[in-house]
Amino acid sequence: MIETEFTPLASALGGALIGLASVLLMYVRGNVLGATGILAGFLQPSSSTDWSWRATILAGMLTGPLIFLAATGGFPAIEVPVSTLSMIVGGLIVGVGVTYGSGCTSGHGVCGMARFSPRSVVATLTFMAGTAVMVFLTRHVIGL
Amino acid sequence: MKLFLTYLAGVVFGLGIAISGMANPAKVLNFFDVFGAWDPSLAFVMGAALLVTAPGYMLVFKRPKPAFAESFKLPGTRLIDRKLVLGSFTFGLGWGLAGFCPGAALPVISTGNPSVLIFTVSMVAGLFLARWMITNTARRRDAAQAN
């Protein structure tokens, strides 16, 4: 376990930018800014025009932390309190879950919730519950 | 212009993820650890994102169509079924184990952090595995119906 500092301002600013990006994408091309959907369509494209906008927005996403680096002199903190095995298994489970659940924190949690989609509200409450259960199990029951 | 603005949406998203702390597994896991090293920061990420997106979407949806496309592409299904609930719960279990969610991990690939790369490769494998499982289930069901 690593203690982290409470950062309401930075977190709210970051969240506002995530929201702004979601609104911009809907305004420009009418797409939901969901990482799961964008990545899935990038890996298994339905057409070349469908692929190119996904590649473009992913390239933009990769640029974000580089701007952060240029502005602050360092990359954002990435502190990993779990084992490599947890990272591998966790990644696999996330990939399966978001495919069956048709979305993740960005698609359901931000875009879907913002238009009050009942499906997204259910999905978001459910994955938050799943995350809380896993954190409780690993930290307070199993003690990983 | 359309592609440039698409790129810009990606940049703003990636910058938002970097600033927010969403791509820091320690911070994410602490948010869910109410009985331990609780860090409520992520509520501010979600809250601010919704405070911008909800009214923003309302304005955008007042238009008959997007600025550079023929229609809004919103999910067609409104079904709340077992697949949605079990899939989302599964996603949560994985998020709680690794501390990364897809939207947080993708932008920070550019930091070259090994944990991010390991997570992303595994997640992509999981994505393909689930695709294969879904197609396989559908095929078996079709075969059973044909008999």
Structure description:
The complex is a heterodimer of chains A (144) and B (147). By secondary structure, chain A is mainly α. Helices cover 74% and strands 0% of the residues of chain A. The mean pLDDT of chain A is 96. Chain B has one domain. Chain B is an all-alpha fold. Chains A and B meet through helix 1, helix 2, helix 3, helix 4 and helix 5 of A and helix 1, helix 2, helix 3, helix 4 and helix 5 of B.
In short:
Chain A has 144 residues and is an all-alpha fold.
Fold topology:
The complex is a heterodimer of chains A (144) and B (147).
Chain A: H1 8-29, H2 35-43, H3 48-72, H4 84-100, H5 105-114, H6 118-141
Helix pairs in contact in A: 2-3, 5-6
Chain B: H1 2-20, H2 25-32, H3 41-60, H4 82-98, H5 102-105, H6 114-146
On the 0 to 100 scale, the average pLDDT of chain A is 96
Taken in chain order, the helices and strands of chain B follow as HHHHHH
Helical region count of chain B? 6
Distance between the termini of chain A: 9 Å
Give the proportion of residues in helices of chain B. Answer: 55-70%
What's the total number of strands of chain B? 0
- Stretches of chain B where pLDDT is under 50 for at least 5 consecutive residues are none
Shape of chain A: globular
- Main interface pair? A-B, 114 and 115 residues
Strand content of chain B: under 5%
Spatial extent as radius of gyration of chain A? 17 Å
Mean of residue pLDDT of chain B?
96
What keywords describe this structure?
heterodimer, A: 144 residues, mainly alpha, 6 helices, 74% helix, B: 147 residues, 0% strand
